[in-house]
Amino acid sequence: MEIENKLMIDRDALSKKHSVLILDGQVEHSISFVQELGKIDTVVHVAATKECLTFKSTYVSKAIMFSAAYDDKEFMAWVRSLDDKYHYDLIVPVTENMLVVFQQLDEGDVLRKKAFLASPDGIAIALDKTTTTLLAKSLSIPVPHSVLLNKLANVAHSDNYPLVLKTSQSFIERDGKTVYSPVCIASNAEERGQFLEKWLPYCPVQQQEYFQGEGWGVEFLYVSGHCVLHFCHQRIHELPLTGGGSSYRRSANAPKAMLDAGKAILDQLNWHGLAMVEFKMNENGEFVLLEINPRSWGSLPLSVKAGVNFPVEMLNIAVGAGLPQQPTYTVDYYARNFSRDIEWLGANILADHRNKLLLTKNRWFSILEWARPFVGKESWDHFDWTDLAVFRSQLVTFTSRLFSALFGRIGDFFDTVHMWLNHQKNKKQLAASGEVITDVLFVCYGNICRSPVAEYAAKQLSADITYSSTGFHDDVLRKTPENIASIATNLELDLSGHRSCRISKEQVLATDIIVVMDQKNFEDVRQHFPEATNKILMLGLFSRPRALTILDPYALNDAAAADALSDVVNGVKGLVSWCSALK
Fold it and tell me: Where do the coiled-coil regions begin and end (predicted)?
């Protein structure tokens, strides 16, 4: 297998003193290593699976693309051949995937030493959320109450929502591929069941109580079991809004108990190299440990700007320049990932700020925060006057995405107008035809929530018309989810006997009108049955107030799902009244 695909850049300068290989340069926070090491006259080689932003940096001496579909042993043989040729002082595996590949090396292997990695056992514990939690408990470090789930058949019922669900490892072997498993905050049994069905067949799942608070990270550089550097940041903006990586953060003095907890768990692992210990802290100052991130992190630009230069100090240690002294870094300094925080800003503006599961901020204040660069209290990730090509490329990408989104919104507007006009035209033609409507087909995607509720509600209101429902989901004979069936019962609808079916041409031909719930249903019917476009009506336009879209309650919390099903019933009442008036 050919590992190396293409040499993108080659501008090695023999006059430079030290050399570094950065792996997985397609990950954005590798740019901090490139820029900081390049500034001190280091030869920086970057390997990535695709052309990437990191390659734009003027500090990249050599940029190499390699195949993403690599065999681990052959890949390490390729890295070894690069090291034999260039004699790197430091190798930086940026991603967790790459860390797993290096895990296969013996502890005394020269590549492992150059990669500045902890012991195989230490990394294995850090990568496994369950063993991390058990270790923290043994050290009396507070953690959320957790239960390890191993088999679907043994999963007990739970009434305590919200719950946090996370696979024991972030990257899972699934269907022959290594895939990332995101953390899920399940607000109801249906969301919990979906996550467990998706991931539990491949990996144990840790179920934790939900701890309300904000994310904090304490970053460390260890050498042979001893902490030589630390830094702390608070996440100000997290994306997604339910909690995740920070798009905006501030430097902070680590609360002593939190700093001690981070040191205690890494001391126990006899740590070596970089690590970030992640916490959540509530407004009362109480915190829990969430996990250990045993590699570099996305907020690295903040620590560098605030005065803790992890990349440079790692290289100094690697070349025998001595151990650094812990600096007094700047606190209340902010760093923003420009493009991600624009995305956060949009999400925050549109979000329901009453939802306590969303980490929203005051809309006006979050806009005013953009003034901080003018008072010298904020920097933007990877913006560097000596390396403007990187930020310029970020702006180009962001602008392209912005215009794409803008044109998408314009397209959505015209799609909305088209649906409304199609609805009005079909209503007028049906009324003018003088034909009596005898058959109505309700359509949604899964045929387990909205369309069966519409069918059963219509049957209660009118016995003169045949009502049925269907959907586009390939799996048939599915039951209505328990929480949806319970809400339907409150609406005096019994869905216990309903089983889903998939839409067929026979159904479409036999019915007089097809009533859909949203734009996706509208487009699906048009795409699969274009001859039926003149039969499509929008259920939401029969409701009061009118709405083109009735939300799918499948992934909503119970309160929002109840609202959506009420919209369905209100729309059905308007539809049945309209059909009766045609007689």
Answer: none
